[in-house]
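Let's do one together. I've listed all components of the complex below, 355 residues spread over two lines.
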Amino acid sequence: MSTPTSADTQGPLWEVFVQEEGGAAHVHAGSVHAPDREMALQNARDVYARRGRVASLWVVESDSIAATAPADRASFFESAFDKIYRHPQFYKVPRGIRGL
Amino acid sequence: MADDERTKDLAEYCLRLGDDRLVLGHRLSEWCGHAPVLEEELALGNLALDLLDQSAVFLKLAGCLEGCGRSADELAFFRAVSAFRNLLLVEQPNGDFASTIARQYLFDVFDLHLATSLETSTDRDLASCAARAAREAAYHVRHSRQWALRLGDGTEESHRRMQTAIDDLWTFTGELFESDPLVERLVEARVVHDPQALRAPWHDAVRATLAEAGLREPSEPTLRSGGRRGMHGECLDRMLSEMQSVARAFPGASW
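Okay, and this is what the predicted structure of the assembly comes out as:
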């Protein structure tokens, strides 16, 4: 997500998202270096899917991700802190419902 | 064919399958700490572990069929080099990365077709071990093929190294499809398929990859063989003396 300061000779960086079995969301697992999409998928498989039960992998080139800067924190997020009516905790969630 | 003769043949055949995987798996493990990038370090390690795991299964099966009570460990660590039955291709030293990838790709394509064909073996144990090997080989071939394409179609230097590796290793590819009386007996009993039948699909796949990678297919050279009869290169002797040293220094040790 940032431009490396020292020369990075290992090709572009890719962010890896792993979905575990059972229909869960894809969760960010880490990153790998790879010259292209196919190799990025293979590297992600070899680094992040060696253990555990994985159903699916996504890779996306780190440069393609737009991210907030630390300085954006106040203007982006803090105004939500004191608006409790925006939170859905006033509803009863039926038991057994997960991943809502 | 008498049952005990077939059992003896099958034991020897499983030894061949197990030794191919043991030797290639060990070769790949020699890359530990030396791979070009971290991601490939883990990929080669995964490959090595897949193959060693498969070899343990086939060697265990070989030991059971042989009926002399030898475990997979005893077969792996307490046989002399002349008792090894692996293909010459898999014992070739790692060389540079291109050479390792070329060796791997040529073997992986063969392994995928062989293991897939063995899934329909009339021997249930062999068929179930082969099914697992085929599943893993499908990924192995994907990995080594992608590297072969990138090295062949990469920089001038990677192309040169990949072409040299293919040229050097081509001489060991004839042995993959060789038959002998033992294989012929097993073919007749429908335990294994005729290895000659694997040659065309192997050749088609390899030829397509070489073309896509901009690599030249070597002209038919003198093909070398002898691995199945225990006639190995000095390189295997050196590899085994390291691989077997700990088990021989501390026989029966556990950890």
